[in-house]
Automatic annotation (TrEMBL):
Ranges annotated as spanning the membrane: 7-25
Domain of life: Bacteria
UniProt-recorded name of the protein: TNase-like domain-containing protein
Name of a matching Pfam family: SNase
SMART domains: SNc
InterPro entries assigned: SNase_OB-fold_sf, Staphylococal_nuclease_OB-fold
Record GO terms (molecular function): endonuclease activity; hydrolase activity
Residue ranges occupied by any TNase-like domain in the UniProt entry: 38-159
PROSITE patterns: TNASE_3
Length: 225
């Protein structure tokens, strides 16, 4: 008798579990694409690099809160551009616009086929999270995607992009705010404070000549010869 009761109770528990799973699956939170009424549709006509593209309306757009490697010189810069092309080129996408950057590009969040493109590029290691002063509702999502990429060493977080060559100690630092490329020698005042960020246009150089040929200038805080 007790055995029959036990089997009956297990059956009840199993049934309730199935019902609850179905309920929560059907009532889960909608994606940003389906819930945001401020989205605009546009067709992508040209991809410039891993985070910038042109649209049919003549505007140039940049994916918000992410930074892809410089094209074509940055580590995985060409791969990042190719990945973005595969995701959005010649397709009609949905975007949420913010403000323009210093170069006149409209900063946006991009959705295509129910995929959040900003997040995908970061999670796959083709871009890094670029924190802005004004955080969006998706900032945490992109930041978590970066943590996944970093922990699994994908893309710009792999040894391919992070390994420094022996005896190449010159730090090339790119400042996107004013499009400045500055290199720092080991004897420069701020050398220890400069970090080479993966997925950006920062680079290690072996010689000053190599840095200058890449468009970098020497930091003003370095000792005068």
């Amino acid at each position: 008798m007790l055995r029959k009761i036990g089997i009956f109770l297990l059956g009840i528990i199993g049934f309730v579990s199935i019902v609850l799973n179905v309920y929560f699956f059907k009532t889960k939170s909608p994606s940003p694409l389906s819930s945001d009424k401020n989205l605009q549709n546009l067709k992508v006509t040209r991809v410039i690099d891993g985070d910038t593209f042109d649209a049919e309306n003549g505007e140039r757009y940049r994916l918000y809160e992410i930074d892809a490697p410089e094209y074509p010189k940055g580590c995985l810069g060409e791969d990042a551009k190719t990945r973005l092309e595969n995701l959005i080129l010649n397709k009609t996408i949905s975007i949420k616009s913010f403000h323009r950057d210093n170069f006149g590009r409209i900063l946006i969040l991009v959705y295509s086929n129910n995929l959040f493109i900003n997040e995908i590029l970061v999670e796959e290691g083709y871009a890094v999270f670029s924190k802005d002063k004004t955080l969006t509702e998706t900032s945490l999502t992109i930041e978590k995607a970066q943590e996944k990429a970093r922990l699994t060493q994908r893309g710009v977080w792999s040894d391919l992009c992070l390994t420094k060559k022996d005896n190449c100690l010159i730090k090339g630092n790119y400042r996107s705010a004013n499009n400045a490329r500055i290199y720092h020698m080991p004897d420069c005042y701020n050398y220890d404070k400069i970090t080479i960020k993966p997925g950006t246009s920062d680079r290690w150089f072996c010689t000053e000549q190599e840095a200058k040929m890449a468009g970098f200038r020497k930091s003003l805080d370095c000792p005068k010869l």
